[in-house]
Design goal:
The complex is a heterodimer. Chain A contains 19 helices and 30 strands. Chain A is of the alpha+beta class. In chain A, a hairpin with a 2-residue loop joins strand 25 (610-611) and strand 26 (614-615). Chain A is globular and about 100 Å long. The N and C termini of chain A lie far apart (71 Å). The longest helix of chain B is centred in the C-terminal third of the chain and has 14 residues, at 103-116. Chain B has 2 domains: 2-77, Ubiquitin-like (UB roll), CATH 3.10.20; 86-152, DNA polymerase, domain 1 (Orthogonal Bundle). The model of chain B has no long low-confidence stretch (mean pLDDT 97). Chain B is built from 5 helices and 5 strands; from the N terminus they run E-E-H-E-E-E-H-H-H-H. The chains are: A alpha+beta, B alpha+beta. At the A-B interface, helix 1 and helix 17 of A face helix 2, helix 3, helix 4 and helix 5 of B.
């Protein structure tokens, strides 16, 4: 049987999606369900003086209206930060309470304060209009740069500062800077983004009055974690009375990691009103209340020698947490950001200092890449600036500072097990025809256009495991992953995984892995995920961890199946287990033609006795059945890396940036399914390009989100993007048996600096802030023209 | 309230509906055809695209009451006799979908494109699909899928 790992297997999940039979949360309806509408603060910062629901309660079809008072009375807990980060001075981070329904104060536009349940959605909407809320409006803190000098928005949190964190050695870095020939300085704003999974968040709750079990269907990337938080911190129900199901989920990109207010409120309320509840976000609610991404202000400095060697790096960043600290909110701008800020380079000394602050804006949390795009943007922009100031080629300066021996101890935290950065950049250079750029630039100029080329080399630390490391860094849980592999008596296999697919194709790739391990046709393997009642426990999907952590748990469970199978086969074949080889789904006695298929062994494992031709095949000490599980914790993070090159052509008359060519060369170690991995890269690139050219979440001074619809927030569309030119290099990960590395976030991490470096290159080195919209580029072109005219 | 008689995926349907019921509301909430998705409420994302009398429209901004007598085809009605439409086959082959949420609208829109233009160029495909937002694929494989379907149809 040919190996499936490495094959372009078409997806098992596609048929249902392509025929309209996907089952997303909003597709679920339960008999007798009520409809929920949340009443949200229209103010960014206010005290709630009074909520009057009397008129609304009498409105047609209203079942109940619940407020923050009710939540408090029932002692339902709120949302939490999952990572405890300490400040440089050793003090603990400061987090405000974040009740599921605000009782006393609201802290961002969209903060929920009450919920209406009614017989129909129209009736719920109409009643919500009748709820009267008396607010005392306060001055909002909406500007990140001014937040530390503004009034504290949460009691007891001075300067709105959650923590002031340091990683690295300031003194050593300052000493390195003393020896520099040149110090390159860069101020950047990594703008706020809104993840915008195409499926808006939703939940459908079914309370069973007989078993007292709550079932919460929800749009989650990690249903087990949601159950854990809802039970342990929310106190909604004990875990054994709470089932969380994340069925088909229409994209996440980090925004569906968090357990949200609505899931807690509706789960709690369903038990209270003894009715099922359905809530589906409108797109504007998603814009306002989904966790946002990025939003940093950074000052970076790079110390270099005249011949382009890096001596040291300083990263001073203010990170926006929004109104509250959420699950990955506090770790994203620290351990997911700081260590990666020195990039793929030998950097003798460095530090990252991050001040995380609260503002009256939506909570900021992990968004595809989470910290690593911000880190890569910082270092790759400043490296390009260094090349320009030193008069070096951007590729030359990168090559000069790459490590060439692995494992490579990266400056701040990570021990990178494998990689070949030189090979990746050389391949990208060739594929992009880097050397032909000068000719193409001339051609563009002859048409009155500006052409620029941009390079990025990146690595990322993904997997977000092993548990001992992440717990040492402040994580409140261990981030292993589990799998269970079950052989049915008649030979089909069900694989249960704690990972969750919301587009990543686990049903296919995980089946490929199991098919290879067990020698069973892929058609006979089903992968089940997303239901706390099916499978053991799981930490879910984010941080490009599904394959490197969850996939390996499947490999390990399969290996246990094969080991038990060998013992059973040995007994059946009257041989010793040591003599049994397992290959292509068959247990064979060495140097003989005696064999049993894994299907026969599975069948036998369920029949431990003697009847007719069946003769007790179970070895002494073994239990019946062929079901094994594994909890896998890797030895380290995984470290994909690569180099991307793009070319842009700018029309100075309109400021329009045409993305002309995009080449991505990535090293993901072993690739299980190239078809799917290429898709992951494409999608990641689109999001990274989106930040570079189009996307921007904008609050006004009063804290109103002025980009809260697709009319105002520019999503990349088909006609904005080019075809992508992908290449791969391969150095296998040494920390897992498949040699795989994460691939889900790479495109997003690399694309933003690649495109911006190209735009800035086209503008002759003129700095421009994210995103490089036509308006900004047009202005920059006009200024260029002016200064060129002066010079002439 | 208004009574309308329409044909949905070849079946005659007669329903009394509210004046403000959208076509997507009729399909999803009344006929339980949940393949048509709602992604934005402002007719920007295109997840709700279906065919009305053979033409692609955004069903979230069409009033069902206006469609009396029309023929509607949704993603559920695209395959015939269990055989996938060439566009569906092509999306599968070229990995033109990931989370699947935008897919029904994307496929219905692409089918209409090929009715209008047999062998569209890359740019024509990208221009046509400008009203369908996909957050997963970066559109690369969607364009490839539409070209693949065009070559098979």
């Amino acid at each position: 049987m040919a190996s499936l790992v490495g094959s372009r297997v078409e997806r098992k999940e596609d048929k249902r999606f392509l025929t309209g039979k996907g089952r997303y949360t909003s597709d679920i309806n339960i008999a007798n369900q009520t409809y929920a509408i949340f009443i949200r603060s229209p103010h960014a910062r206010a005290k709630i003086k009074k909520i009057d629901t009397s008129k609304a309660l009498k409105s047609s079809g209203v079942v109940d209206i619940l407020t923050g008072e009710h939540i408090a009375q029932d002692k339902i807990g709120g949302l939490i930060a999952g990572w405890a980060i300490r400040s440089e001075d050793g003090s603990e981070m400061k987090c405000p309470a974040n009740p599921p329904l605000a009782k006393d104060s609201v802290n961002f536009v969209g903060d929920p304060i009450a919920v209406v349940f009614a017989e129909t959605l129209d009736e719920a909407r109409a009643a919500a209009e009748l709820v009267k809320v008396d607010y005392k409006v306060l001055k909002a803190v909406s500007n990140l740069g001014e937040a530390m000098n503004s009034e504290a928005i949460h009691d007891g949190i001075d300067k709105n500062l959650c923590y002031d964190w340091l990683l690295g050695d300031r003194q050593k870095t300052n000493e390195a800077f003393d020896k520099a020939d040149k110090i390159i300085k860069l101020d950047i704003v990594n703008n706020r983004l809104i993840p915008n999974a195409m499926e808006p968040r939703a939940c459908v709750i079914d309370y069973n009055t007989a078993s007292e079990e709550i079932t919460c269907y929800t749009t989650s990337q990690n249903p087990h974690l949601s159950r854990l938080i809802m039970s342990a911190f929310g106190g909604v129900a004990p875990e054994n009375k709470l089932r969380v199901v994340a069925p088909d989920v229409g994209g996440g990109f980090g925004s569906k990691i968090n357990l949200y207010n609505e899931e807690i409120v509706c789960s709690w309320a369903s038990k209270k009103i003894e009715r099922p509840i359905k809530w589906v976000a409108e797109r504007t609610e998603s814009f306002l209340t989904d966790t946002h991404g990025r939003d940093h202000i950074t000052h970076a400095e790079l110390a270099v020698t005249n011949d382009g060697k890096f001596l040291g790096f300083k990263n001073e960043t203010i990170a926006n947490l929004g109104a509250y600290a959420r699950v990955f909110g506090t770790v994203t701008p620290t351990y997911l950001f700081g260590p990666c800020a020195t990039g793929v380079y030998i950097m003798p000394a460095a530090y990252s200092n991050v001040k995380a602050v609260y503002t009256n804006t939506a909570p900021v949390d992990a968004y595809r890449g989470a910290g690593r795009p911000e880190a890569t943007y910082t270092i790759e922009r400043i490296v390009d600036k260094a090349a320009m100031e030193l008069g070096m080629d951007p590729i030359e300066i990168r090559m000069k500072n790459f490590p060439t021996e692995f494992p490579f101890k990266q400056t701040l935290v990570h021990q990178i097990d494998s990689g070949d950065y030189v090979a990746g950049l050389n391949k990208a250079k060739e594929m992009a025809d880097y050397d032909g750029f000068a000719v193409r630039k001339k051609e563009s100029e002859s048409k009155g256009k500006l052409r620029g080329i941009g390079v990025t080399s990146y690595f990322e630390a993904c997997g977000i495991a092993p548990s001992p490391v992440v717990m040492m860094l402040g994580c409140g849980v261990g981030l292993w992953e589990s799998a269970e592999v079950r052989f049915n008596p008649t030979g089909q296999v069900t694989v249960y995984t704690g990972s969750h697919s919301h587009g990543q194709s686990h049903q296919t790739t995980f089946a490929q892995i199991a098919a290879d391990e067990l020698g069973v046709p892929i058609e006979n393997i089903d992968v089940v995920h997303g239901d706390t009642d099916k499978g053991t426990f799981g930490m879910g999907t984010y941080g490009s961890r599904s394959l490197t952590v969850g996939g390996i748990a499947i490999v390990n469970a399969c290996k246990k199946i094969v080991n038990k199978g060998k013992r059973i086969a040995a007994k059946m074949l009257e041989a010793s287990p040591d003599e049994i080889d397992f290959k292509n789904g068959e247990f064979v006695v060495a140097k003989s033609n005696k064999k049993k298929t894994i299907g026969e062994v599975a069948f036998a494992s369920y029949l431990p006795g003697v009847r007719d031709e069946v003769k007790s095949p179970l070895p002494e000490g073994d239990e019946p059945g062929l079901i094994e599980s594994s909890f896998f914790d890797p030895a380290n993070f995984s470290f994909p890396a690569g180099s991307h090159i793009c070319e842009v052509e700018i029309d100075p008359e309109t400021g329009h940036v045409k993305l002309d060519k995009y080449t991505a060369v990535d090293d993901f170690g072993t690739i299980v399914n190239p078809l799917i991995v290429e898709g992951q890269v494409h999608g990641g690139l689109a999001q990274g390009i989106g930040q570079a050219l189009y996307e921007n979440a904008q609050y006004d001074d009063s804290g109103q989100l002025i980009t809260a619809s697709y009319m105002d927030y520019t999503m990349p569309r088909a006609d904005d993007l080019p075809d992508f030119n992908l290449g791969f290099t391969c150095t296998k990960a040494t920390t897992n048996p498949l040699g795989v590395k994460g691939c889900g976030e790479a495109g997003t991490i690399a694309a933003t600096p690649t495109v911006m470096n190209a735009v800035i290159n086209a503008l002759g080195g003129k700095e421009i802030s994210l995103p490089a919209t036509a308006e900004k580029v047009w202005k920059a072109c006009k200024e260029m023209k002016k200064s060129n005219a002066k010079a002439a | 309230m208004k009574k309308i008689a329409i044909e949905v995926n070849g079946k005659k349907v007669s329903k009394e509906i509210q004046d403000h019921t959208t076509l997507s509301g009729l399909l999803r909430d009344i006929l339980n055809l949940t393949g048509t998705h709602i992604g934005c409420d402002t007719s920007q994302c295109g997840a709700c695209v279906v065919h009305v009398d053979g033409k692609s429209i955004k069903s979230c901004t069409a009033l069902a009451a206006d469609l009396d007598g029309s023929k509607v085809t949704t993603i559920e009605g695209l395959a015939s006799n269990g055989k996938l439409h060439p566009m569906q086959e092509a999306f599968k082959k070229m990995h033109g979908l990931q989370c699947g949420f935008c897919t029904p609208g994307m496929v219905m829109s692409a089918v209409d494109l090929l009715k209008n233009k047999k062998n569209p160029s890359d740019q024509e495909i990208r221009d046509w699909l400008e009203g369908n937002i996909c957050r997963c694929t970066g559109y690369h494989n969607i364009v490839a899928a539409v070209k693949e379907a065009a070559s098979k149809m």
